Amino acid sequence: MKDSWRILSIVAAIAVAASAVFLTFETPAGHVLPPGSGALIAGTPTPDGGREKVTIDSLSDSTKELVDKIIAQLMSQGLTPGVELSVQKDGKTIYEAGYGTIASSGPQAKVVPGSDTRFQIDSLTKTFTAITILRLVEQGKIDLDQPIGKYLPGLPNLSWNAIPVRSYLGMITGIPDHSETTGTFHEAIATVAAEQTSYGTGLDFEPGSKYEYSDTNYFILGELVNAVIPHQRFMPFTKANVLEPLGMTDTGFIPFGTGDLWPTPYNNCNLATPAANCVAVLPRKWNAGFTGGGFVSTMSDLEKYAIGLYHRAILSEKSYKEMWKPTKLTSGRNKNKPVNFGLGWENLAFDSNKDLLQVGKNGGGWGWGSQLTLFPQRGGSVILLRNSNPGGNLFQATIDIQFAVAHPHLKPAITAGAEPNTCGGTLVVQGSGFLPNEQVSITVKHAPGFNSPQNLGVLGKSGPLGNVTIHIPYSLNPASGLPGCAFSSTATTSVTIIATGEISGETSTEFYLRNCGIAWGACAA
Q1: N or C: which end of the chain has fewer CB within 10 A?
Q2: Its pTM surpasses 0.90
Q3: Distance CA 303, CA 381 (A)
Q4: Concatenated DSSP letters for 16-28?
Q5: CA distances (Å), 513 to each of 420, 427, 443, 507, in order?
Q6: Cα(301)–Cα(252) distance, rounded to whole angstroms?
Q7: pLDDT category, 202, cuts 50, 70, 90?
Q8: How do strand 266-269 and strand 200-201 relate by DSSP bridges?
């Protein structure tokens, strides 16, 4: 099982889809929910019951409305039947909400997903595996820079034995990806070892020379834990050293159908495929010890996890820094080059002082999706769970939600100026207060005497802080017949700049040209 997408650069630049028509549904209690796109999928339940949206603590009404719109867009992008959202700030949950409805295996056939709804979290499991390994490092049982063969002898490919443990956590081993869910670890690993690849038997590339996502690394890390603590093994050790200290009682290798609330998973759900392809599927029968993606959890448990990470529970601060720093390549022409993957975590972004801005991990598999994103400098985190795959861009949604919560006072604003060049130049349009990576449409309405600016109606995208700058070349039409400039020194004409954010709404501002050859400015009417 591979993640549904990869973040390959420190600051992701992911286009937000075009605005969708958002339907609303109302629960019997009278609370309006943004759409379950289950209404768009043949055979999925319509929202006719279930609990109200739960709000823990309070956000402003405008912030709640914006968060709801973000989720609504996510659901319409991915035809996702149900989504569960939670937001943390300074070590406590400040907002939790369920959207849409899910068909449940429990006594209620149609319910809004809640904090106790169980979801397969797929590759988010890798973060628990990484923390388990680091707990063993702190206990002196494992050295990350020692060859894995020191602790786990008998791997079927001899070249694997010499690769350091750290390289397995950081996905730079060259071992091919293998997500077989049945059989034993040994059978799965033997299958990979027997493959002929581009770099000798059982390797895709020289170890340490490249980053490549591979679940096989985490198969082997699970076996490493079993070998180091044979009297306890992976799950009992993880439960005693990670889950129970955080109060997580509903996370682990839990068979589908255990308990009351299990969503029906949906597969092949995205805008690129017909809605009919978004169909209910039987849950995948994971290998009971799949340490790369076999965990099940609930929002209630993942909130405890996020809060524990905020408080730096379980591990030392040194271990957290180790876990969240980019892995460096150890061989090849790009030796010492960092990649955007730490030890089990990705989505790494840092400021100019090398302080961590964000870190997270997603999971995407057969009918499920999960995303946990932490914003350490703001003391925040956002968690999203869904019962479909791929079902829209969860990572981008967590960034948008964090921005909306962290900056509720910001409203879209547009300013403009120009770099004059005789009778032509560049119109510079700047906006702020949008969501990060939000698509912004800029339209220039020109008065008589202007040629249509090049790229009229161009699209731009805001940066990490919600700011956008767009340069639009323009030229003047000497319609008056005067040589050179189109206007006399006393003439004025107006240009209207309209910027529409797909989520944030519309704003417009007028600017005036004083004189051809004189600088543009945001002049008063």
Answers
A1: C
A2: no
A3: 9
A4: PPPP-PPP-EE-T
A5: 10, 11, 17, 20
A6: 11
A7: confident
A8: unpaired
